[in-house]
Specification:
- 41% of the residues lie in helices and 5% in strands.
- With 619 residues, the protein is mainly α.
- Strands 3, 4, 5 and 6 form a four-stranded antiparallel sheet that branches.
């Protein structure tokens, strides 16, 4: 310790003028010392005497002494000050270093190459493009196709995406796909940019949104009934003649059979709502392009106006009508429409900032929840949006207080979201396969699509909580942590990418073992300059040989409830991919991808999420 000098003058002190004592301890007492090097010197003459008699005051000490402290050796004092400052700064530096270098809340990276997985999962959409095929595409086994689509109806319907392994274009899952991909860009655009995939995913979204703009034709004049709106729900058929998009195994480039169009009106509330949601979400992705973003918003607002102007008794699902969705029932049968109208209103509110849309959401929320069928509870997919909508409205409640009357109206969405997170983690609500894959719909033969969106929502919500600097949440008597949510989210993606009893990646091209007999026309027929007829295609459908073209990034249907998987082209429930399923995969992958800390925010809090970007248009 540094030294100071004190001289004694008290008559009660029978000692020399200089004494050595230790520094004041925790009790505030000076202790005698025999050593100069671990003590300070005290000059007792330096302190003024008090007029108060010490004996009149209660004291916890055996004896009290009056003294003044005077510094007589400044060299040691300076050394003490410098050392103290150095120690304080060193401790602060160590704390800051640990703060910024230690992963936050268990942001554990996967052992898998998620950057590669994202690139591949996005590449799948390239292989699904219909219309004038891009010359710069990385897909070597595709070309122009479907250039006559819409001719039978007198309306241009060229473009869009083929849905899955067949050559049909379904509008409902296409719109859902664009909504979900747009949401991931709105939240995680910096992550996409960090890995060089931002322009890639935006190109995919624009390919889809351009097509969606073609799918509805409003009434010719303002006095016409809203039901005069034309909505195109499907291109391609399952029933026309004996050659169609299902029973004919043929590349899209070789199609020679007729491709009829299914047409609806604005009473197809679910289809209209999902298209509105997709256009609205995409408008936020392309916000910097004012002209295109404005075109998307204009289309979305017009279609929403037409869909909500319909008499409530006439509103329904697109598959209720044979002309509209009769052929889609076996593929994408819609169970309700209220969730799509709420979904549409939510995204329109974010796109425009118009609280009228938010008001319609809060008014219809209860009816949308009531409409949800039990088998769809807690599921987010092309058919059920209420689950994801709750997460989205909770985001609004957390980060952009709307005040009265919306604050109270948004509370149920947060309650539902907490219950959703608990349902993912519970051992009693959903079963899992022996290998750990959650079975959100046990009776469904393609379980990966539901696991992927559950992975996305759980990781996304954990990022919201992280931004709030919360450690977790609760529902009823159960608590959950961010670490638990992220572990669940990663476990599902790891399963999909190969950590499963089959030791097989269910994403084509990823890892050492993956499906090679994918149920997919373009992938299974050689790209050799020959045109193959419908009859010729059977040769490739029933071939035991691996597909000649690798459908990179395609997530197949997945295993059964016992983790068993058959790599068989003739069994689509195992081996067929779809654009809606892959959208969920992309969402989960980008949510879980750990960004470099220096990329966007100085710290890793929030895991690369754009906290306020979604509120750009809300004033």
């Amino acid at each position: 310790m540094p030294e100071t000098t004190l001289s004694s003058s008290s008559p009660d002190m029978n000692c020399s003028s200089v004494s050595y004592v230790h520094s004041i301890n925790e009790a505030g007492r000076l202790l005698p010392s025999a050593s100069r090097w671990n003590s300070i010197e005290i000059d007792y003459n330096a302190f003024p005497k008090s007029s108060i008699e010490y004996d009149s005051l209660p004291s916890p000490y055996s004896k009290s002494v009056e003294f003044n402290l005077v510094i007589t050796d400044k060299t040691h004092l300076k050394r003490f000050v410098y050392i103290s400052i150095f120690l304080v700064l060193a401790v602060l530096a160590l704390v800051l270093l640990l703060h910024f270098l230690t992963p936050k809340h268990g942001h554990h990276g996967s052992s898998k190459n998620l950057t590669l997985a994202i690139n591949q999962a996005l590449t799948f959409f390239e292989a699904q493009k219909s219309g004038h095929f891009p010359k710069n595409s990385s897909i070597s086994f595709r070309g122009d196709s479907g250039l006559q689509d819409g001719n039978s109806s007198g309306h241009d319907l060229v473009g869009g995406f083929y849905d899955s392994g067949n050559n049909i274009k379904f509008s409902f899952p296409t719109a859902y796909t664009i909504t979900l991909l747009s949401w991931t860009v709105i939240e995680y655009h910096q992550k996409y940019a960090d890995i060089g995939e931002l322009e890639h995913v935006k190109d995919i979204i624009k390919w889809g949104s351009d097509y969606l703009l073609k799918l509805f034709v409003p009434p010719i004049n303002a006095t016409s009934s809203s039901t005069n709106t034309n909505l195109y729900s499907q291109v391609g058929s399952t029933t026309n003649d004996r050659f169609n998009d299902v029973n004919c195994w043929q590349r899209p480039e070789d199609m020679s059979y007729s491709r009829p169009v299914s047409i609806c009106n604005s009473t197809a509330s679910d289809l209209a709502g999902e298209i509105v949601a997709a256009l609205s979400a995409a408008s936020l992705v392309f916000g910097e392009d004012k002209a295109y973003s404005g075109e998307l918003i204009k289309g979305a607002e017009k279609l929403f106006e037409l869909a909500t102007a319909v008499d409530p008794s006439a509103q329904g699902t697109y598959t209720m009508s044979d002309a509209c969705g009769g052929q889609a029932r076996q593929f994408y049968n819609s169970s309700g429409f209220e969730d799509e109208l709420v979904w549409a209103g939510t995204w329109l509110f974010f796109a425009t900032g118009n609280t009228t849309y938010l008001g319609s959401v809060t008014q219809k929320w209860t009816s949308a929840e009531t409409e949800e069928i039990p088998s769809e509870k807690w599921i987010f997919d092309w058919n059920n949006k209420i689950t994801a909508n709750a997460v989205l409205l909770t985001r609004l409640r957390f980060f952009h207080d709307m005040g009265y009357p919306y604050a109270a109206a948004l509370q149920p969405s947060t309650t539902r979201t907490d219950l959703l997170m608990c349902s993912y983690l519970s051992e009693h609500i959903f079963n899992k396969t022996p290998g750990g894959l959650i079975l959100l719909r046990p009776d469904d033969v393609k379980p990966l699509q539901f696991a992927a969106t559950a992975s996305f929502l759980s990781k996304l919500y954990s990022d919201y909580l992280d931004l709030l600097q919360r450690q977790g949440g609760s529902c009823s008597s159960h608590n959950y942590t961010l670490e638990m949510l992220r572990h669940f989210s990663m476990s599902q993606v790891d399963y999909i990418l190969g950590d499963n009893p089959m030791k097989m990646s269910y994403v084509v091209g990823f890892g050492e073992s993956y499906p090679v007999h994918v149920h997919h026309r373009s992938s299974s027929i050689p790209w050799d300059g020959h045109q193959y007829s419908c009859k010729d295609g059977d040769k490739w459908l029933y071939s035991e040989q691996p597909n000649p073209n690798t459908l990179l990034g395609a997530m197949v249907g997945g295993p059964d409830q016992h983790d068993k998987f058959l790599d068989d082209r003739k069994k689509p429930w195992f081996t067929e991919p779809s654009i809606s399923s892959n959208a969920g995969l992309v969402a989960a992958l980008i949510a879980l991808h750990n960004p470099p800390c220096e990329s966007s925010n100085f710290s890793c809090v929030g895991s690369g999420i754009d906290k306020m970007g979604i509120f750009t248009n809300i004033r």
